[in-house]
Each structure stands twice: as structure tokens, then as C-alpha cells.
Amino acid sequence: MTVESPVAVRIRGIVAAMAPQPPEKLADTHRLIEDLGFDSLRLMELTVVLERSFELPRYRPEDLMGVLRVGEVIDLVTGTLASVNSGEVTA
């Protein structure tokens, strides 16, 4: 049995709550735009909510390029948290 990270569970909850077209069960493979109905404005709102919820430094647009699926959002946030906690990134 795989134990899920509390951070990943929290991120999924935020994404599901903000998704214009939330699925019955959110999967890491769901595409933010095509499957969940996010548009560019809603994606920026999601970014701000994640930054504030996890006390992250602001993401640059180039950091967000290629983040297309829920699993990639989780990877981005958990990677940023690891960098912040190790002192590699300053907020």
C-alpha cells in the first residue's frame, strides 16, 4: 500500500476545488486545461493560491511552462518546497 504525501493530497484538493470542470475523482494524469477546464486566468489564480497556501516564492512564467497535468503541479510544488527547505531558494 502506498502512503500519499500530505502535501500531494492538499494540492489535489486545491486543484479539485478550483477546477471549473471538476471530475468525480481527480487523477494525476488529468490535464489542467483539456480535462479540468482551466483557462489562463484560472491557472494564474491557482498559482497564487498554491504560492500562498505553501508559503512559496513567486513562480516565474518560465517555471510554469510545461506544467500541464495535476501530477506536474504536484512535482513543481513539492520540488519548490524541497528547495526552500534546503535553503536553495529564498522567498
TrEMBL record:
InterPro entries named among the record's database cross-references: ACP-like_sf (IPR036736), PP-bd_ACP (IPR009081)
Pfam families linked to this entry: PP-binding (PF00550)
PROSITE patterns (alphabetical): CARRIER
Top-rank lineage group of the source organism: Bacteria
Limits of the Carrier domain: 5-81
Protein name as catalogued: Acyl carrier protein
